[in-house]
Amino acid sequence: MEQERSGTIGIVVVAAGRGERAGASVEGPKQYRRIGGKPVIWHTLKRFLEWPKSGPVVVVIHPEDHGLLEAAISDLACSDSLVVVEGGATRQASVLNGLRALHDRGIQHVMIQDGVRPFVDASLLERIAAELETGKPAVLPAIPVSDTIKRGDTSGVVTATVPRTDLYAAQTPQSFHYETILAAHERAANEQAVDFTDDASIAEWADIPVQLVAGSIDNVKLTVKRDIAMADEKLKASALPDVRTGNGYDVHQLEPGDGVTLCGIFIPHDQKLKGHSDADVALHALTDALLATCGAGDIGDHFPPSDMQWKGAPSRIFLEHAARVVRGAGGTIMNADISLIAEEPKIGPHRQAMREKLAEILDISLDRCSVKATTNEKIGFVGRGEGIAAIATATVAFRGAD
């Protein structure tokens, strides 16, 4: 059942073409070909369904494509709010059918989008909407032409170089005051003026001023088979996680005491670790490792030893902070690994409790937490029992590029 949308800008997504230039495919016309695991039209519609200013969204399809569309958007959130209409013999006729479907739906503006431009983004939509809100009757997203343009004759001989100053490549969504563009389309249909290649051309023909707005180089139209292959690769690459590894090292001196805290677990011992906080060398190393995955400095930057508020503080505070920093940067903690180097106390009896404490502090599963221990074979200050060292490695997955 169609559901009402609260946005104020009507959307017409034109997807009625056959896409001959893209070649034949068992998936159907190019708007139903899969890129990044989903049909092209799925990606295009998703951009508008997620945009808060979208009002009713009309998708114009070929009369034979109802089954293809239904299958393409079966798992698309809010797809039950779509208005589906059939297209005409030409793109121009299909757009007019889409515009008519928005009649009496309480909208003031409309955006007309090619169904095979799946990379339109919210920032472009906002730029267009801002111009519409100033009262512009027509807004055209476009990018300046950067290639040298040649004019040739029918035999393929260059006749002129066209100055590219003030030349722009038009994109969609081409956007308008709704009643104004509807009237222009109706007039063009009545007068059988059908040689227009886009909706801005109809506006120009009807003496409607068209305002240029900066387009997006990513907002490409998928026309030929190679375009679809490149779009597929782009989406697959962006879906891959950005996996980063950070390392941390810390060491603290031992002095007479009643026990040491390692990985948040207190172990009775005849010595303690000397430090400004509770001197948990393991959590300090892991804190540095996590901060390293997003270039956020080290523990001393966030908790300087000169600050007395951290005197005797439990080191889980530092690790919890590092985890928040990582997650705030879009990271997911995948693994935490700590190697403790100490002659005493024995780590083995406490290792499981240490792993459980790490899992609790980081809010990750136990199988993602590892604690190991070794001695220094009586070599160096650790080997002489003068201190305990820790090496930590953190693995964090960040979202892929948008």
UniProtKB/TrEMBL annotation:
Q: Where does 4-CDP-2-C-methyl-D-erythritol 2-phosphate bind?
A: D250, V251, H252, H276, S277, D298, I299, G300, T374, T375, N376, E377, F381, R384
Family annotation (PROSITE patterns) = ISPF (PS01350)
User: EC number(s)?
Assistant: 2.7.7.60, 4.6.1.12
> Which residue stretches belong to region 2-C-methyl-D-erythritol 4-phosphate cytidylyltransferase?
1-243
- Does this entry carry the keyword NAD? no
Q: Which UniProt keywords apply?
A: Isoprene biosynthesis, Lyase, Metal-binding, Multifunctional enzyme, Nucleotidyltransferase, Transferase
InterPro entries hit by this protein: IspD (IPR001228), IspD/F (IPR026596), IspD/TarI (IPR034683), MECDP_synthase (IPR003526), MECDP_synthase_CS (IPR020555), MECDP_synthase_sf (IPR036571), Nucleotide-diphossugar_trans (IPR029044)
Biological processes, Gene Ontology terms: isopentenyl diphosphate biosynthetic process, methylerythritol 4-phosphate pathway; terpenoid biosynthetic process
The residues annotated as site (Transition state stabilizer) are R21, K30, H276, T375
Q: Where is this region: 2-C-methyl-D-erythritol 2,4-cyclodiphosphate synthase?
A: 244-402
According to UniProt, this protein's pathway is:
Isoprenoid biosynthesis; isopentenyl diphosphate biosynthesis via DXP pathway; isopentenyl diphosphate from 1-deoxy-D-xylulose 5-phosphate: step 4/6; Isoprenoid biosynthesis; isopentenyl diphosphate biosynthesis via DXP pathway; isopentenyl diphosphate from 1-deoxy-D-xylulose 5-phosphate: step 2/6
Highest taxon above the source species? Bacteria
Record domain 2-C-methyl-D-erythritol 2,4-cyclodiphosphate synthase: where: 244-396
Q: Which CDD domains match?
A: CDP-ME_synthetase, MECDP_synthase
- Listed binding positions for a divalent metal cation are D250, H252, H284
Q: Name one GO molecular function term.
A: metal ion binding
Q: Where is this site: Positions MEP for the nucleophilic attack?
A: R164, K221
Q: Which cofactor does it need?
A: a divalent metal cation
Q: Which Pfam families match?
A: IspD, YgbB
Catalyzed reactions: 2-C-methyl-D-erythritol 4-phosphate + CTP + H(+) = 4-CDP-2-C-methyl-D-erythritol + diphosphate; 4-CDP-2-C-methyl-D-erythritol 2-phosphate = 2-C-methyl-D-erythritol 2,4-cyclic diphosphate + CMP
Main role? Bifunctional enzyme that catalyzes the formation of 4-diphosphocytidyl-2-C-methyl-D-erythritol from CTP and 2-C-methyl-D-erythritol 4-phosphate (MEP) (IspD), and catalyzes the conversion of 4-diphosphocytidyl-2-C-methyl-D-erythritol 2-phosphate (CDP-ME2P) to 2-C-methyl-D-erythritol 2,4-cyclodiphosphate (ME-CPP) with a corresponding release of cytidine 5-monophosphate (CMP) (IspF).
Q: Which family does it belong to?
A: Belongs to the IspF family.
Which named protein is this?
Bifunctional enzyme IspD/IspF
